[in-house]
Design goal:
0% of the residues lie in helices and 65% in strands.
Length: 77
């Protein structure tokens, strides 16, 4: 499992983003993904999400399509 922590600053949102990703490489070159993330805004609001997906085998240019779905929860108005 890999987790990243980032600080995000922008016009509509500022805060900290944390997202652990669990990935399993399959024999055909695709990858199954389990993603969980938490955003904490500078106003104390939270956004959480869990989801799963599949990353297809990259094409000749190294671009891989990801198909997934998830559910989000937030305390933000």
């Amino acid at each position: 499992m890999r987790a990243t922590i980032r600080e995000v600053t922008g016009k509509h949102y500022s805060g900290v983003h944390w997202d652990p990703v669990e990935a399993t490489l399959l024999t055909d070159g695709s990858v199954t993904l389990t993603i969980r993330y938490l955003h904490m805004t500078n106003k104390g609001e939270s956004i959480t999400e869990t989801g799963t997906g599949t990353q297809m085998t990259p094409n000749k240019r190294g671009i891989a399509k990801v198909i997934g779905e998830g559910t989000m929860w937030t305390s933000a108005p």
